[in-house]
Specification:
By secondary structure, the protein is of the alpha+beta class. The chain is built from 16 helices and 17 strands. Helix 2 (28-53) packs antiparallel against helix 4 (62-114).
Length: 584
């Protein structure tokens, strides 16, 4: 049978109770066997005396006496054998019970020793009656150093004994909360830790309380992690609350949107309702998409750049995170910049037309002079009375053709210099090239330079604003003509290459070349003494607004090559019978 711990101060009520239950018949069997043995020996001696002294045995023959004696001995032997068998059976049952008790005690002891929770027992007087190995490992003191100790205990914090005595008094009075107590203790090496202690009464089999059982768990690391997470959460919430962006999280429910989180900026703009989030969804309600949109809020009277993302909430629900950045001021600046760019583009076109004024005057003078001459000839024929219908009709038709030519020139100039909103559309590249080259050819003929075009067949359509692209191409052609004014080579090349999904347009001259290519597109930088330095910068801005690229490189044969790209227009359906828009 298991022996109780000698160091335990708790009365061994459990072991005494077990011993009392099992010890009831221990003495009976050996006593019965001993009595029977004494009876057999006494009967044997008594019979021997009767044999020699009794008259009864004198008359009985020797054989009869011997039989009676054997019968008595056999009966007594049977009784002894039966008693021994009963004793063997009882011993076997007792041995099995003790083995089961030892195994159970060993199993419970193994469980107790393998626990990471420190177990400690106080008796009713507040002395330590029992500690398990986990408690010893937790505080660094041995079992022999703790059993029988009274307050102050060696693991109490120096200078805080009064607090520990209050906790001990609370424990012994049974007033500890069911949620446990958080206490601090000191290990033998001087290090400190935080533990959570739970207390329950320890009772004997009769229900009488004999002490207090406490369990302690080291929560130093979990507490540190919890405090770190709390601090991180506070910092994160401080950052979210301090952001100028309106951040909100909502969940889709059958009743509508449920607002789960909103920072201070959102609450200031839209209140503590989900209506602001719904207003900025931009038609994404019911769709789980991650998009960025620019939307105008009627309730806040502001423009917002809204970032939308789906994420898993703390309860595993799919929710919508929305970050709305106020871009009202940015939109105002962009609009002001757009107006300034339009003014700069218009100024550039007017400057170009001003530089070409004399050439345009000469170009218009030719058809006007021809019209005047044809009209004078027709009038002279009519006055002479010898006018023939065929001759007169021919003169009038030529005058009409020259008037149409002059009208086209004037219309083209008006379209080029007028202020209009940029409009990207699918246009024929051939029309853009024709108009730009016709303008540049006026100055080129004046300088005795030919413009040679190398075009693929057929020319694709591009997605562009035709007036702005004409301005870019005319500027590049005009720069090339001016650069070749002193060159012996008198041909300016215009090359178009189809590089699906883009079209590359190159203006190749053999002029004086590039002096500072890295500064070529800087504002107010010009190689011309009378130039403003804005032409190429405006051209690059226009091309980039069309999702293209403008760059320059040295011509291996001398001079400069300017290239820019434009996106090709998507192919039109074969069933589309719409005609090309006329804009010239």
């Amino acid at each position: 049978m298991a022996i109780p711990n000698r160091k335990s101060l708790i009365p061994s009520t459990f072991y005494e109770h077990a011993r009392h239950n099992r010890r009831g018949l221990y003495w009976l069997t050996p006593v019965v066997v001993l009595v029977l043995y004494l009876c057999v020996m006494g009967a044997f001696i008594w019979l021997q005396r009767l044999q020699s002294d009794s008259v009864m045995f004198v008359t009985i023959d020797q054989e009869t006496r011997q039989q009676r004696l054997l019968m008595v001995v056999a009966a007594l032997s049977l009784v002894i054998v039966f008693s021994l068998l009963a004793l063997w059976r009882y011993t076997r049952i007792r041995t099995q019970a003790e083995s089961a008790l030892i195994a159970e005690t060993g199993f419970r002891r193994a469980m107790e020793n393998s626990m990471s929770t420190g177990m400690r027992v106080f008796d009713m007087q507040g002395r330590i009656a029992y500690v398990n190995p986990a408690f010893c490992r937790m505080i660094g003191w041995n079992e022999a150093d703790l059993i029988g100790r009274t307050a102050p205990f060696p693991y109490w914090l120096p200078g805080r004994h009064d607090h520990h005595r209050e906790v001990l008094a609370q424990l012994l009075s049974g007033r500890t909360p069911s949620s446990g107590l958080e206490i601090e203790a000191q290990r033998r090496d001087g290090s400190r830790f935080t533990a959570r202690m739970y207390v329950s009464p320890l009772r004997d089999p009769n229900g009488e309380q004999i002490g207090w059982m406490t369990s302690m768990t080291d929560i130093t690391e979990p507490k540190r992690i919890r405090e770190a997470l709390t601090a991180a959460h506070e910092r994160f919430m401080t950052v979210l609350e301090g952001l100028d962006d309106a951040i909100s999280v909502v969940a889709d429910t059958p009743e509508g949107l449920e607002l789960l989180f909103a920072n201070r900026t959102y609450r200031r703009l839209f209140g503590a309702q989900a209506s602001g989030h719904a207003e900025l969804l931009g038609g994404r309600l019911g769709r789980f998409t991650d998009e960025t949109m620019e939307l105008y809020s009627q309730s806040a009277q502001r423009w917002f750049e809204v970032h939308h993302r789906m994420l898993a909430w703390t309860d595993s629900r799919r929710v919508r995170l929305q970050v709305a950045r106020d871009i009202t001021e940015r939109r105002k600046h962009e609009e002001a910049l757009r107006v300034q760019q339009e003014k700069a583009q218009l100024t550039s076109r007017l400057t170009t037309m001003g530089e070409m004024a004399s050439s345009l005057a000469h170009e218009l003078n030719q058809p006007l002079t021809a019209i005047s001459n044809y009209n004078m000839a027709a009038a002279a024929m009519l006055k002479s009375g010898k006018a023939r219908t065929e001759t007169l009709l021919e003169a009038l038709e030529k005058a009409s053709a020259q008037a149409e030519r002059a009208g086209k020139i004037i219309s083209r100039i008006r379209e080029f210099v007028k202020r209009s909103e940029p409009r990207r559309q699918a246009v024929a590249l051939a029309r853009i090239l024709e108009n730009a080259v016709s303008f540049a050819d006026i100055d080129a003929r004046k300088r005795q330079i030919d413009i040679e075009q190398n075009l693929p067949d057929p020319l694709p359509e591009v997605l562009a604003d035709p007036i702005l692209i004409e301005q870019v191409l005319l500027n590049l052609l005009k720069n090339g003509v001016e650069a070749m004014e002193q060159s012996e080579y008198r041909t300016l090349h215009l090359t178009v290459t189809d590089q699906d999904p883009q079209v590359e347009i190159a203006v190749i001259d053999r002029g004086h070349g590039l002096r500072n290519p890295e500064r070529l597109f800087e504002p107010f930088y010009s190689t011309k003494s009378e130039g403003l330095g804005m032409g190429l910068n405006i051209c690059r801005t226009i091309i980039e607004s069309h999702h293209g690229r403008l760059w320059a490189s040295a011509n291996p044969e001398g001079g400069t090559i300017f290239r820019f790209t434009l996106p090709k227009a998507p192919p039109r359906p074969k069933t589309d019978e719409t005609t090309e828009e006329q804009y010239a």
